[in-house]
Design goal:
By secondary structure, the protein is an alpha+beta fold. It contains two helices and six strands; from the N terminus they run βββαβββα. It has a six-stranded antiparallel beta sheet with strand order 1-2-3-5-4-6. The radius of gyration is 14 Å and the shape is globular. The relative contact order is 0.22.
């Protein structure tokens, strides 16, 4: 089994926000290639009470990773989300592929990365 790890810290988003809005603090992405097209993403953030934000952060990382690898789609395999001491963590596994994979959790990487950028969510 081939493993690769990439750690990206200190990502900052630049999208405009409402004057009183609190921007989550995106704490970074760790990426591990598990086997072929199967990739594990571990992300963390703080400054929110919404667990969906950390799962969306993992989706953004997966979509950008797919594009970096020359693939067009991702599909969620599984996700585990937890909160400890004000920090949300998501441990998610995605497949990446050049063609639209079967399943309801398929993501068009180009569309997702554009959405992430517009929403101020950093990608890998």
């Amino acid at each position: 089994m081939r493993r690769a790890a990439v750690m990206i810290l200190g990502l900052a988003a630049c999208a405009p926000m409402a004057p009183n809005a609190v921007r989550p603090d995106y704490l970074g992405v760790q990426t591990d290639l598990l086997d072929g097209d199967l990739v594990n993403f571990r992300v963390a953030l703080r400054g929110t009470d919404d667990p969906a934000l950390v799962e969306n952060y993992a989706e953004c990382a997966a979509a950008q990773y797919a594009l970096i690898r020359g693939q067009a789609f991702t599909r969620l395999v599984r996700v585990n989300t937890s909160k400890e001491g004000g920090t949300w963590r998501s441990d998610a596994v995605y497949t990446i592929s050049p063609d639209l994979p079967r399943g309801r959790a398929s993501i068009d990487a180009v569309v997702k990365v554009a959405d992430c950028g517009a929403s101020g969510i950093p990608t890998v």
